[in-house]
Amino acid sequence: MTQLANEDLYQTVPESTRPLLEIRDLEVGFQTQHGLVPAVRGVSLTLHEGQTLAIVGESGSGKTTTAQAIINLLAGTGKVTAGEILFEGRDLTKLSAKEIQDVRGRLIGYVPQDPMSNLNPVWNIGYQVEEAIKANNVAQGKEARKRTIEVLQEAGLSDAADRLKQYPHQFSGGMRQRVLIGIGLSARPKLLIADEPTSALDVTVQRQILDHLATLTRDYGTSVLFITHDLGLAAERAEQLVVMYKGKIVESGPSKEILANPQHPYTQRLVAAAPSLASRRIQAKKNPQADAEKIYSEGSLDTGLIARASRRESAAPDRDLISVQGVTKVYRIRKGGFRSDELLAVNDVSFGVKKGTTTAIVGESGSGKSTVAKLILQLEGITSGKIEFDGQDVAGLKGAELLKFRRRVQPVFQDPYGSLDPQYNVGNTIAEPLLAHKVGTAKERQARVLELLDQVSLPSATRFRYPSELSGGQRQRIAVARALALKPDVLVLDEAVSALDVLVQGQILNLLTELQAELDLTYLFITHDLAVVRLVADNVCVMKKGQIVEAATTDEVFDNPRELYTQELLSAIPGGNFEFGR
Amino acid sequence: MPSNSPIGQTHYVAALEDTPVAAVDRLDESQKARSTWADAWDSMRRRPAFWISSALILLIVVVALFPSLFTQVAPDTCDLGNSNDGPAAGHPLGFTRQGCDVYSRIVFGTQASVTVGLLATMLVTLFGVIIGALAGFYGGWIDAFVSRIGDIFFAVPTVLGAIVLMSVLPARTPVTIAVVLSIFAWPQIARIMRGAVLSARNSDYVTASIALGVSNFKILLRHVIPNSLAPVIVIATVSLGTFIVAEATLSFLGIGLGSDVMSWGNDIGQAQTSIRTNPQVLLYPAAALSVTVLSFLMLGDVLRDALDPAARARR
């Protein structure tokens, strides 16, 4: 075979071997009311035995569709319209339904994205793994049971034998993902397709899973096809990289080379926007008007903006704007009957936020970070402790006082799909806080809406549109505009950029930084993403199990973390210290 | 193999002209702005079923409002000499046992049937929406109390309850029937409304509104109720048909509308005496009833497809 131009670079591949997987000019379309909509347009890629390849791209780029086409798992009306998928020289697109069934699982394993919905809640774990083993004819009867335990142990569940009778709801997200990986690898497939295998998991769990996957695939010489939106993960875990954009491949090749030296403008943009621990605090320039256009029009974190944070404490007043002192929150969980359990969600948390600064609260799921946000926003009452805002105790504020507080502290929530009323057009959504606080006349409110849309860089005609017509990033900008309508002092951003594609995320972070400089805003930034923290925060509080384990300035925490937990978190970020070519 | 082919091993860069890069997250201004209701309308007007059912319903309403436009024959001047006669000139559907014109009676009977259906639906919807919304939104003891009351009424079959109530009522007009039917039918709408409100109340946009300082009652009015109405509208449309059937059932049993009121139910009831000799006398009012009920069911079906996003995604 002479397909390889520079085979000598890859000694792991014997010369006589043909590629394990070769996709040639693949086209996939979805049949809709308006005809065939192409999702994948002329994709070609090659994967050799024992190699790991990552397909990266934003949502809608066709990366998942490409992977699903390989094992003919296309959703709904999807169809391969052209091209071929050669697996060990056999064209998978020409196989009958029965033949492809034979390929799935036995030759090509698949690890789906969402560990929460991909296990059947009414069957126990043992049954589901055993079912996969029997279906792939790996073993039958007693052997199958033995193999089930082996598979789960290989996937990192050490007490597998005792857990066979347990149900998915008794497993954590990480454990479920291990089960799915176990199922995917149960028949020792030659190729494993992992579609965002860890994006629903915390970083420390993600690291364990990825490490484990790497060990397994190395031991058995399995090739892996990663589908991911995370450039860091691709940089760290895959030798080969394919960058997709709007159904086409824009760049492909050795991943380190591409990420260090991106050639295509889209890849460059993607790499520039990827937050990494090596990046620095975005600092808005003080002459924002001149640069505003340029900054908004691109998603990248402008290199000019990534400069070391100058201390702002000197400019800020000494007193904290928000002061949280020994706050504890206990939830009562009903256990049926009159019994109830207590859950300590927030345990003796204290920190202060100075005016005009950004404080990030970082933690994994269940750490209590979102509860802290709700307590500060007065959406939930505190059990004990004290929260002061601008010198005033805010616990138990009522009526007009509470309204006054709400006017100064506004939230932006995580889910840009859920936080806007689908029945309200954008103009009414942004004007709602003005109306609720009876600010201005109808005309003045209208003018303010236009001003706000301009501030978040959306055209004024957007006010007639409904949330369903907008992208996630646009919705989040609307949410920011709504939060800014009353000219608040503080924005509480609860995972405000977590659901967005990396380019859009960069855009919103830039916008937030600009607005902070322009309007002297104070941000409380709740997130699980340490790389984002590095970009925007002045101070960081790291939370674990309801407590703050470390609180310091961002530079201190990142350069010199004192707590073991913080160190673990930092080292778990995939490709965290990879120097992207900017 | 051409050198620029993306075979994975070499560093391949697509030609820029093949893969132009668009601005990040730009708003697509070419499309017209549209609300959920505009979307629903768009999906409905593509369906023939929508136009057929709407046309039929419009016709039925016009007949109910202006019966004399459709027939010159008085429905209550009956000549026993024509008893059970077949179609004759000016009497296209023949005569009843009493010698009344069947066509004319159907036309004039529309009003009572449609009045009962519309009125009962409006009462049930109003009542159900208010009670369901309060129960779902405020929860706690209000919810518990209202839900149990609803369960009690739910446990009584509508027609059975109506039979008992109607037999003790002195006046039996379309209004009393509508009121009696709605007394036993509101829990269905209230339950659906409560469920929809519960899910809307827990949505992020409601939390956002609370944090923005919008008062509870305004949140209920502006956000929660508008977002919960879709399933109620669908069920209300479907139940309109069932109310018309319920009225016919009661009248057939002789405890619905008074025998002086012309309605399809009464006519069907009276026709049973001549079912062996002259079955079409029974068939015509029954057909009118079926067409009406079917039209509303059809409309309800189209509405559900248009308003239920899950159903929309399946298509």
Key words describing this protein structure:
heterodimer, A: alpha/beta, Rossmann fold, six-stranded mixed beta sheet, 20 helices, 35% helix, B: mainly alpha, MetI-like fold, 66% helix, disordered N terminus
Radius of gyration of chain A: 26 Å
Number of strands of chain A: 20
- Helical region count of chain B? 11
Helix/strand structural class of chain A: alpha/beta
The major beta sheet of chain B can be summarized as: none
**Overall morphology of chain B:** flat
Examine the secondary-structure arrangement and name the CATH architecture of chain B.
Answer: Orthogonal Bundle
Largest interface here, residues on each chain? A-B, 81 and 44 residues
Strand content of the residues of chain B, in percent? under 5%
Low-confidence stretches of chain B: 1-8, 311-315
Broad structural category of chain B: mainly alpha
Organism (chain A): Cryobacterium tagatosivorans
Family (chain A): Belongs to the ABC transporter superfamily.
GO biological process, one term (chain A): peptide transport
Pfam families (chain A): ABC_tran (PF00005), oligo_HPY (PF08352)
